[in-house]
TrEMBL record:
Recorded family membership: Belongs to the nucleotide pyrophosphatase/phosphodiesterase family.
SUPFAM superfamilies: Alkaline phosphatase-like
Name of the protein in its database record: Bis(5'-adenosyl)-triphosphatase ENPP4
A GO term from the CC aspect: plasma membrane
């Protein structure tokens, strides 16, 4: 009982400590470095990022959503929804009813985005709050007729420093205050495609540049007085795997291009048959042993990639490291989009600030779990989502969290204590109730014995 009392008391103390950090309106900055594969942290040096992690929390692997592409996963991070639910199902999409096309260079129609409500819209609609964004996918589009109060129209030519200067200025000086901000950078994704993640020479240089940018971010927040009261999450949308010109799947050798329309290519190809769906499917099914071919209704449930009209009738999924091509197509040396159960597709998450523990490591969460956690930090009511807040409680200072091994230890310890106390009680009761041992009657000198 004493042990349980101590645990409850310590939980209350932790909760009080967490709440004391919220005397100022909670603020959150979400930062994404595109294509930052989780195990880069183990394979390369990151002095600035590791310092950030040492004073905060680290989730070593984030299980992202299928398909593991940029637009879908960035929208899952800020909505807590699987792709079939938020509607951004690929970087290239086609809507058969409206005949509209979506691509990374043709993404500004709200039609594609309005199936979900991202966190910056929810935050923007609160009284005395505003949102800001620097190049995060979707933030320069009026989703449900709402954009962040402060945002930048997307352009890959804008430097990280300019994006950072805008974000920090908005966080520091805006009224009403910016309480949610998002910052996006295209690296190390671009270099991962160009060189492949196994090119240690080039990737070492690129990842050092990333770490230097994180150093700039931390320095900027400190000199502007934002560091102590701002919650910062650094994460990514997906990882990267090595590809090769020797691992190609040529669709033109399997099916006539006139039989279908190609909506999206490698490593998950979206096929819209023009005539006989079954015939196209059967030809593709026998195309390569390094590619899974699914009719839409047969896509595995674990992908959560079936219930949306923008998902095409036939989906091809290449094995890790294999590239789906057409004739005369040249493969990238690195790519992503593969099965989201693959460790190479996983990003990481690091976080620092008054909402988070210090020096804490966690093995894994799902990317859809990040949205309800961010809503909790900001005090927002989340929209319906596929995430689970309980999966991220251990990261947060105001939440009482016991891991499974600890819980088992506490239960075993409590049972041992209860057993010991019960045994002692039984032994004591037995001693008190037992008859006294026989003792000979002692006669006084003037007493006569009854029998001589």
């Amino acid at each position: 009982m004493n042990l349980l009392g101590i645990l409850l008391f310590s939980g209350l103390i932790t909760a009080c400590r967490g709440n004391s950090s919220y005397s100022l309106p909670p603020k959150l900055l979400l930062v994404s470095f595109d294509g930052f594969r989780a195990d880069y942290l183990q394979n390369y040096e990151f002095p600035h990022l590791q310092s950030f992690i040492k004073e905060g929390v680290l989730v070593e692997h984030v299980t992202n959503v299928f398909i593991t592409k940029t637009f879908p996963n960035h929208y899952s991070l800020v909505t807590g929804l699987y792709e079939e639910s938020h509607g951004i199902v690929a970087n290239f999409m086609y809507d058969v009813i409206t005949k509209k096309h979506f691509s990374d260079s043709n993404d500004r129609d709200p039609f594609w985005w309005n199936e979900a409500v991202p966190i910056w819209v929810t935050n923007e609609l609160q009284e005395n709050r505003s949102s800001a964004a620097a190049m995060w996918p979707g933030t320069d589009i009026p989703i449900h007729n709402t954009t962040p109060s402060y945002y930048m129209n997307y352009s890959s030519s804008v430097s990280f420093q300019e994006r950072l200067n805008n974000i920090t200025s908005w966080l520091r000086y805006s009224s009403p205050p910016v309480t949610f901000a998002a910052l996006y950078w295209e690296e190390p994704d671009a270099s991962g495609h160009k060189y492949g993640p196994e090119d240690r020479g080039n990737m070492s240089r690129v990842l050092k540049e990333i770490d230097d940018l994180i150093g700039e971010l931390i320095y900027k927040l400190k000199i502007l007085g934002l560091w102590e009261n701002l919650n910062v999450i650094i994460t990514s949308d997906h990882g990267m795997t090595q590809c090769s010109k020797d691992r190609l799947i040529n669709l033109d050798l399997c099916v006539d291009p006139s039989d279908y329309t190609l909506i999206d290519l490698s490593p998950v190809a979206a096929i819209l048959p023009k005539r006989n769906r079954t015939e196209v499917y059967n030809k593709l099914k026998n195309c390569s042993s390094h590619m899974s071919v699914y009719l839409k209704e047969d896509i595995p449930a674990r992908f959560h990639y079936q219930h949306n009209d923008r998902i095409q009738p036939v989906i091809l999924v290449a094995d890790e490291g294999w590239t789906i091509v057409l004739n005369k197509s040249s493969p990238k040396l690195g790519d992503h989009g593969y099965d989201n159960s693959l460790p190479s597709m996983h990003p990481f998450l690091a976080a620092h600030g008054p909402a988070f523990h210090k020096g804490y490591k966690h093995s894994t969460v799902d990317s859809v779990d990040i949205y309800p956690m961010m809503c909790h930090i900001l005090g927002l009511k989340p929209h319906p989502n596929n995430g689970t807040f309980g999966h991220t409680k251990c990261l947060l200072l105001d939440q009482w969290c016991i891991k499974l091994p600890e819980a088992i230890g506490i239960v075993i310890g409590a049972l041992l204590i209860l057993t010991t106390v019960t045994s002692l009680f039984i032994i004591t009761q037995n001693r008190l109730s037992a008859p006294r041992p026989f003792s000979r009657l002692q006669l006084q000198e003037d007493d006569d014995p009854l029998i001589e």
